[in-house]
Amino acid sequence: MQQSILILGACGQIGTELTLALRERYGNENVIASDIREGSDSLMNSGPFEILDATSYDAVEEIVMHYEVSEVYLMAAMLSATAEKFPERAWNLNMNSLFNVLNLAKEKKIDKIFWPSSIAVFGKNTPKENTPQHTLMEPSTVYGISKQTGERWCAYYNAKYDVDVRSVRYPGLISWKTQPGGGTTDYAVEIYLQALEEGTYNCFLKEDTALPMMFMDDAIRAAIELMESAGEKLSIRSSYNLGAMSFTPGEIAGSIKKQLPEFSISYEPDFRQAIADSWPSSIDDSQARKDWGWHPEFDLERTSAEMLKQLRTLN
Ligand code: VAH
To answer: Which range of residues forms the domain containing residue 103?
Structure first.
Protein backbone atom coordinates (compact mmCIF):
# COMPACT_ATOMS: atom_id res chain seq x y z
CA MET A 1 0.00 0.00 0.00
CA GLN A 2 1.39 3.39 -1.01
CA GLN A 3 2.12 5.41 2.11
CA SER A 4 -0.65 7.92 2.74
CA ILE A 5 -1.32 11.49 3.77
CA LEU A 6 -3.40 12.43 6.81
CA ILE A 7 -5.10 15.81 7.13
CA LEU A 8 -6.08 16.88 10.65
CA GLY A 9 -8.78 19.55 10.61
CA ALA A 10 -9.84 18.61 7.07
CA CYS A 11 -13.26 20.28 7.36
CA GLY A 12 -11.99 23.80 7.95
CA GLN A 13 -11.52 26.65 5.49
CA ILE A 14 -8.06 25.53 4.33
CA GLY A 15 -8.47 21.82 5.14
CA THR A 16 -11.44 21.29 2.84
CA GLU A 17 -9.74 22.65 -0.27
CA LEU A 18 -6.38 21.15 0.68
CA THR A 19 -7.95 17.69 0.99
CA LEU A 20 -9.58 17.94 -2.46
CA ALA A 21 -6.32 19.20 -4.04
CA LEU A 22 -4.21 16.47 -2.42
CA ARG A 23 -6.68 13.76 -3.46
CA GLU A 24 -6.56 15.01 -7.04
CA ARG A 25 -2.75 14.98 -6.96
CA TYR A 26 -2.04 11.76 -5.04
CA GLY A 27 -5.20 9.67 -5.45
CA ASN A 28 -8.35 9.74 -3.36
CA GLU A 29 -7.61 6.60 -1.39
CA ASN A 30 -4.14 7.84 -0.36
CA VAL A 31 -5.43 10.98 1.37
CA ILE A 32 -7.23 10.44 4.69
CA ALA A 33 -9.36 13.38 5.83
CA SER A 34 -10.13 13.75 9.53
CA ASP A 35 -11.86 16.21 11.82
CA ILE A 36 -14.02 16.31 14.96
CA ARG A 37 -17.12 16.53 12.75
CA GLU A 38 -18.07 15.53 9.22
CA GLY A 39 -17.47 17.96 6.35
CA SER A 40 -18.81 18.91 2.93
CA ASP A 41 -20.32 16.30 0.61
CA SER A 42 -17.43 16.70 -1.84
CA LEU A 43 -14.95 15.98 0.95
CA MET A 44 -16.90 13.11 2.51
CA ASN A 45 -17.66 11.44 -0.82
CA SER A 46 -14.19 11.66 -2.37
CA GLY A 47 -12.09 9.47 -0.06
CA PRO A 48 -11.45 8.04 3.43
CA PHE A 49 -12.68 10.08 6.40
CA GLU A 50 -12.22 9.59 10.15
CA ILE A 51 -13.73 11.43 13.09
CA LEU A 52 -10.55 12.33 14.98
CA ASP A 53 -9.59 14.66 17.83
CA ALA A 54 -6.17 16.08 16.92
CA THR A 55 -5.44 16.78 20.60
CA SER A 56 -5.52 13.04 21.42
CA TYR A 57 -2.08 11.52 20.80
CA ASP A 58 -3.36 7.94 21.03
CA ALA A 59 -6.21 8.57 18.60
CA VAL A 60 -3.92 10.24 16.04
CA GLU A 61 -1.27 7.52 16.44
CA GLU A 62 -3.91 4.80 15.85
CA ILE A 63 -5.00 6.40 12.54
CA VAL A 64 -1.37 6.95 11.49
CA MET A 65 -0.55 3.28 12.05
CA HIS A 66 -3.79 1.98 10.54
CA TYR A 67 -3.40 3.87 7.25
CA GLU A 68 0.44 3.76 7.17
CA VAL A 69 0.55 7.56 7.09
CA SER A 70 3.85 9.16 6.05
CA GLU A 71 2.84 12.83 5.88
CA VAL A 72 0.55 14.88 8.12
CA TYR A 73 -1.00 18.25 7.31
CA LEU A 74 -2.10 19.74 10.65
CA MET A 75 -4.85 22.21 9.77
CA ALA A 76 -6.85 22.05 13.01
CA ALA A 77 -6.73 25.34 14.95
CA MET A 78 -8.89 27.94 16.61
CA LEU A 79 -8.50 31.28 14.79
CA SER A 80 -7.86 34.75 16.14
CA ALA A 81 -11.30 36.15 16.96
CA THR A 82 -12.72 32.96 18.49
CA ALA A 83 -9.51 32.28 20.40
CA GLU A 84 -9.95 35.60 22.23
CA LYS A 85 -13.28 34.27 23.53
CA PHE A 86 -11.92 30.85 24.57
CA PRO A 87 -8.18 31.32 25.34
CA GLU A 88 -7.53 28.03 27.16
CA ARG A 89 -9.44 25.93 24.62
CA ALA A 90 -7.52 27.67 21.82
CA TRP A 91 -4.17 27.04 23.52
CA ASN A 92 -5.03 23.37 24.12
CA LEU A 93 -6.12 22.76 20.53
CA ASN A 94 -3.42 24.80 18.79
CA MET A 95 -0.50 23.52 20.90
CA ASN A 96 -1.34 19.93 21.85
CA SER A 97 -2.27 19.00 18.29
CA LEU A 98 1.15 20.30 17.19
CA PHE A 99 3.01 18.42 19.94
CA ASN A 100 1.22 15.23 18.90
CA VAL A 101 2.41 15.37 15.30
CA LEU A 102 5.91 16.61 16.21
CA ASN A 103 6.31 13.69 18.62
CA LEU A 104 5.02 11.18 16.04
CA ALA A 105 7.73 12.47 13.70
CA LYS A 106 10.36 12.42 16.45
CA GLU A 107 9.46 8.75 17.02
CA LYS A 108 9.80 8.18 13.24
CA LYS A 109 6.14 7.12 12.93
CA ILE A 110 5.64 9.79 10.25
CA ASP A 111 8.19 11.37 7.91
CA LYS A 112 6.99 14.90 7.18
CA ILE A 113 4.67 17.57 8.63
CA PHE A 114 2.97 20.67 7.23
CA TRP A 115 1.81 23.12 9.88
CA PRO A 116 0.37 26.58 9.05
CA SER A 117 1.52 29.60 11.01
CA SER A 118 0.13 33.08 10.43
CA ILE A 119 0.96 36.76 10.12
CA ALA A 120 -0.71 36.85 13.54
CA VAL A 121 2.74 36.04 15.02
CA PHE A 122 3.62 39.71 14.49
CA GLY A 123 2.50 42.49 16.82
CA LYS A 124 2.01 46.25 16.93
CA ASN A 125 5.77 46.87 17.38
CA THR A 126 6.68 44.83 14.29
CA PRO A 127 7.61 46.89 11.18
CA LYS A 128 4.21 47.10 9.45
CA GLU A 129 5.24 47.53 5.84
CA ASN A 130 7.05 44.73 4.01
CA THR A 131 7.47 42.86 7.32
CA PRO A 132 10.78 40.94 7.23
CA GLN A 133 11.24 37.19 7.74
CA HIS A 134 13.30 37.87 10.88
CA THR A 135 11.97 40.72 13.03
CA LEU A 136 10.44 41.76 16.33
CA MET A 137 7.49 39.49 17.15
CA GLU A 138 5.24 40.45 20.07
CA PRO A 139 1.83 38.93 19.24
CA SER A 140 -1.01 40.27 21.36
CA THR A 141 -3.62 37.61 20.58
CA VAL A 142 -3.97 34.08 21.96
CA TYR A 143 -3.92 32.80 18.40
CA GLY A 144 -0.76 34.77 17.55
CA ILE A 145 0.99 33.64 20.76
CA SER A 146 0.13 30.00 19.97
CA LYS A 147 1.46 30.35 16.43
CA GLN A 148 4.68 32.08 17.55
CA THR A 149 5.22 29.36 20.19
CA GLY A 150 4.43 26.68 17.64
CA GLU A 151 7.04 28.11 15.28
CA ARG A 152 9.68 27.90 17.99
CA TRP A 153 8.79 24.27 18.74
CA CYS A 154 8.93 23.40 15.02
CA ALA A 155 12.43 24.90 14.76
CA TYR A 156 13.47 23.11 17.98
CA TYR A 157 12.22 19.67 16.85
CA ASN A 158 13.92 20.14 13.49
CA ALA A 159 17.26 21.16 15.04
CA LYS A 160 17.25 18.65 17.91
CA TYR A 161 15.46 15.61 16.43
CA ASP A 162 15.78 16.27 12.67
CA VAL A 163 11.99 16.39 12.35
CA ASP A 164 11.02 17.41 8.79
CA VAL A 165 8.38 20.03 9.64
CA ARG A 166 7.53 22.74 7.12
CA SER A 167 5.45 25.87 7.67
CA VAL A 168 4.26 29.14 6.14
CA ARG A 169 2.87 32.25 7.80
CA TYR A 170 -0.43 32.54 5.94
CA PRO A 171 -2.03 35.97 5.49
CA GLY A 172 -5.80 36.32 5.46
CA LEU A 173 -7.24 33.68 3.13
CA ILE A 174 -10.10 34.21 0.71
CA SER A 175 -12.12 31.21 -0.44
CA TRP A 176 -15.55 30.37 -1.81
CA LYS A 177 -15.85 26.60 -1.25
CA THR A 178 -15.83 26.71 2.54
CA GLN A 179 -16.80 29.46 4.92
CA PRO A 180 -14.02 30.60 7.27
CA GLY A 181 -14.66 30.41 10.98
CA GLY A 182 -13.72 32.97 13.60
CA GLY A 183 -11.00 34.91 11.81
CA THR A 184 -10.32 38.64 11.79
CA THR A 185 -9.75 38.56 8.03
CA ASP A 186 -13.08 36.80 7.39
CA TYR A 187 -14.56 40.13 6.27
CA ALA A 188 -12.75 39.57 2.96
CA VAL A 189 -14.90 36.46 2.35
CA GLU A 190 -18.17 37.71 3.83
CA ILE A 191 -18.07 40.85 1.65
CA TYR A 192 -18.36 38.85 -1.59
CA LEU A 193 -21.20 36.69 -0.26
CA GLN A 194 -23.17 39.69 0.94
CA ALA A 195 -22.42 41.77 -2.15
CA LEU A 196 -24.27 39.10 -4.18
CA GLU A 197 -27.01 38.34 -1.63
CA GLU A 198 -27.70 41.80 -0.16
CA GLY A 199 -25.95 44.28 -2.46
CA THR A 200 -24.34 45.79 0.63
CA TYR A 201 -21.92 44.88 3.42
CA ASN A 202 -21.36 46.31 6.91
CA CYS A 203 -17.61 45.85 7.50
CA PHE A 204 -16.25 45.17 11.00
CA LEU A 205 -12.93 46.82 10.12
CA LYS A 206 -12.16 50.45 9.21
CA GLU A 207 -12.05 51.44 5.54
CA ASP A 208 -8.29 52.01 5.51
CA THR A 209 -7.19 48.83 7.39
CA ALA A 210 -4.60 47.31 5.06
CA LEU A 211 -3.89 43.59 5.63
CA PRO A 212 -1.92 40.94 3.73
CA MET A 213 -4.31 38.60 1.92
CA MET A 214 -4.18 35.57 -0.38
CA PHE A 215 -6.64 33.68 -2.58
CA MET A 216 -7.10 30.07 -1.44
CA ASP A 217 -5.79 28.55 -4.70
CA ASP A 218 -2.43 30.23 -4.02
CA ALA A 219 -2.48 29.10 -0.38
CA ILE A 220 -3.08 25.45 -1.29
CA ARG A 221 -0.41 25.51 -4.00
CA ALA A 222 2.09 27.02 -1.55
CA ALA A 223 1.56 24.19 0.96
CA ILE A 224 1.98 21.49 -1.69
CA GLU A 225 4.99 23.16 -3.32
CA LEU A 226 6.70 23.59 0.06
CA MET A 227 6.04 19.95 0.98
CA GLU A 228 7.38 18.74 -2.37
CA SER A 229 10.54 20.87 -2.19
CA ALA A 230 13.91 19.26 -1.49
CA GLY A 231 14.53 19.57 2.26
CA GLU A 232 18.08 20.81 1.81
CA LYS A 233 16.76 23.95 0.06
CA LEU A 234 14.80 25.04 3.15
CA SER A 235 16.69 27.54 5.31
CA ILE A 236 13.66 28.31 7.51
CA ARG A 237 12.19 25.67 9.82
CA SER A 238 10.14 27.99 12.03
CA SER A 239 7.80 29.35 9.35
CA TYR A 240 8.20 31.17 6.03
CA ASN A 241 6.70 34.59 5.44
CA LEU A 242 4.26 34.15 2.55
CA GLY A 243 2.68 36.99 0.58
CA ALA A 244 0.42 37.59 -2.40
CA MET A 245 -1.39 40.93 -2.06
CA SER A 246 -2.44 43.55 0.47
CA PHE A 247 -5.60 45.62 0.42
CA THR A 248 -8.01 47.59 2.58
CA PRO A 249 -11.78 47.10 2.93
CA GLY A 250 -12.17 50.23 0.81
CA GLU A 251 -10.04 48.74 -1.96
CA ILE A 252 -11.83 45.37 -2.01
CA ALA A 253 -15.15 47.25 -2.10
CA GLY A 254 -13.87 49.22 -5.09
CA SER A 255 -12.88 45.99 -6.82
CA ILE A 256 -16.36 44.53 -6.26
CA LYS A 257 -18.06 47.72 -7.49
CA LYS A 258 -16.33 47.33 -10.85
CA GLN A 259 -18.46 44.19 -11.34
CA LEU A 260 -21.46 45.16 -9.17
CA PRO A 261 -21.86 48.95 -9.58
CA GLU A 262 -24.81 49.02 -7.17
CA PHE A 263 -22.78 47.50 -4.32
CA SER A 264 -22.41 49.65 -1.19
CA ILE A 265 -20.33 49.26 1.97
CA SER A 266 -20.59 50.69 5.48
CA TYR A 267 -18.08 50.47 8.34
CA GLU A 268 -18.76 49.51 11.97
CA PRO A 269 -15.44 48.46 13.55
CA ASP A 270 -15.70 45.99 16.44
CA PHE A 271 -13.19 44.17 18.73
CA ARG A 272 -11.48 42.72 15.68
CA GLN A 273 -10.18 46.18 14.68
CA ALA A 274 -7.62 46.07 17.52
CA ILE A 275 -6.49 42.61 16.34
CA ALA A 276 -6.11 43.84 12.75
CA ASP A 277 -4.24 46.97 13.92
CA SER A 278 -1.63 44.73 15.56
CA TRP A 279 -0.86 42.91 12.31
CA PRO A 280 1.35 43.93 9.34
CA SER A 281 0.03 45.72 6.28
CA SER A 282 2.32 43.85 3.88
CA ILE A 283 4.84 41.00 3.98
CA ASP A 284 8.38 40.46 2.62
CA ASP A 285 8.32 36.84 1.39
CA SER A 286 11.67 37.00 -0.47
CA GLN A 287 13.09 34.07 1.52
CA ALA A 288 10.29 31.74 0.35
CA ARG A 289 10.79 32.96 -3.22
CA LYS A 290 14.54 32.33 -2.96
CA ASP A 291 14.47 28.96 -1.14
CA TRP A 292 11.61 27.15 -2.91
CA GLY A 293 10.47 29.40 -5.77
CA TRP A 294 7.29 30.79 -4.27
CA HIS A 295 5.26 33.11 -6.53
CA PRO A 296 1.59 34.15 -6.11
CA GLU A 297 -0.83 34.03 -9.06
CA PHE A 298 -3.89 35.92 -7.75
CA ASP A 299 -4.07 39.67 -7.26
CA LEU A 300 -7.16 41.53 -6.00
CA GLU A 301 -8.82 41.95 -9.40
CA ARG A 302 -8.37 38.28 -10.33
CA THR A 303 -9.56 37.25 -6.85
CA SER A 304 -12.71 39.34 -7.08
CA ALA A 305 -13.50 38.02 -10.56
CA GLU A 306 -13.07 34.40 -9.44
CA MET A 307 -14.96 34.82 -6.15
CA LEU A 308 -17.99 36.46 -7.76
CA LYS A 309 -17.99 34.00 -10.68
CA GLN A 310 -17.85 30.93 -8.40
CA LEU A 311 -20.29 32.25 -5.79
CA ARG A 312 -22.82 32.99 -8.53
CA THR A 313 -22.69 29.31 -9.54
CA LEU A 314 -23.44 28.27 -5.94
CA ASN A 315 -26.59 30.38 -5.65
C1 VAH B 1 -7.54 34.89 11.27
N2 VAH B 1 -7.76 34.00 9.01
O3 VAH B 1 -8.13 35.89 10.86
C4 VAH B 1 -6.92 33.96 10.22
C5 VAH B 1 -5.53 34.37 9.84
C6 VAH B 1 -3.94 36.25 9.36
C7 VAH B 1 -5.33 35.87 9.79
O8 VAH B 1 -4.58 33.78 10.64
O9 VAH B 1 -7.43 34.60 12.43
So the answer is: 5-171+215-241
